[in-house]
Amino acid sequence: MDLLLPHPGTGDLHPSPVPPGTGWPGDPSRPRTPRAAAPEDVIRLAGSARTLDQLDARVAVCQACPRLVAWRESVAETKRAAFADQPYWGRPAPGWGDPHPRALIVGLAPAAHGANRTGRIFTGDRSGDWLYAALHRAGLASQPTSVHAADGLQLHGVRITAPVHCAPPDNQPSTLEKATCAPWLDREITLVERDLESLLALGGIGWAQAIGAARRLGWTVPRPAPKFGHGAEATLITARGKEIRLVGCYHVSQQNTFTGRLTETMLDEVIARL
């Protein structure tokens, strides 16, 4: 029998990884949610998702990338010593936030002991500490911390997602894994496009994936392709003629925040432009 451990917020017992529909806070999936087992399944299931809730549910049970499935579940089983008394989510982390966002933040991928543990993107790690504190300072988050999926945090006018939804080894998804996950991002952008005014890309990969999604969706992208940089901005035009601002920001990784490459002031300045 799988070892059951208490969720740090609810106290409910769960195995690691957590099966869908078993009471994990914020879990959008159910046992019968259709699961992608190959890239062609991702294309089909993403394209047919009618709502964000349906999309998130399908993302959260995706099994299309064997290397990522094996890695995320291995991490969930072995755990980090500091979290050995907690269950790990161990599944893809879907986007989350305001269902009618004017800004969509695009990161990279879940952290092995962050979102892969908590089930909520940018939650339970130092990168999330920086991001949510900044969103709170800007009035876009109800509190400055994001500890676990039952902590009551709410976002206002903002949704956060990632071009890769599973924690990758060494934080480096492969080219194939990014391509396999891309239809999820494309559909997510389509579902929020009506309210969307801006995209905030965290890091060069987030920037490149946002531009790639725009092109796949038939949006007009400046040529030559705009280059990533902190504070860089480009105007994308949707297939319906709506202008969307793409804003670049250094990723809130420990490497950037510890070294001072990204400061709180720098982060606040780009978030103020959303």
TrEMBL record:
Coiled coil: none annotated. InterPro entries: UDG_Type-4/5, UdgB-like, Uracil-DNA_glycosylase-like, Uracil-DNA_glycosylase-like_sf. Pfam families: UDG. Residues 1-37 are annotated as: Disordered. The keyword Iron-sulfur applies. Keywords: 4Fe-4S, DNA damage, DNA repair, Hydrolase, Iron, Iron-sulfur, Metal-binding. Residues 94-271 form the Uracil-DNA glycosylase-like domain. Belongs to the uracil-DNA glycosylase (UDG) superfamily. Type 5 (UDGb) family. This is Type-5 uracil-DNA glycosylase. It comes from Arsenicicoccus bolidensis.
